[in-house]
Amino acid sequence: MEFDIFSRMIPDPIKPLWIRGILHEEYLLKLLGSGGGGFLLGFTQSLPEVIDFFDKMGYPAIPIAE
Question: In a 3-state reduction of DSSP, which class is residue 41?
């Protein structure tokens, strides 16, 4: 599991959100990039709900495809 292998590279405030997505089967996050310029890519089949959830948590989501 990516979370176990790369957990020290995932920002602490994101870790509970990462686990929540897996446990609730709402979305999956993938860690991308390197050298301090990384970002998270998310996958979901419930785009409106996940966008709303992340906005409420203070992390705006930018959809790239529907």
Answer: strand
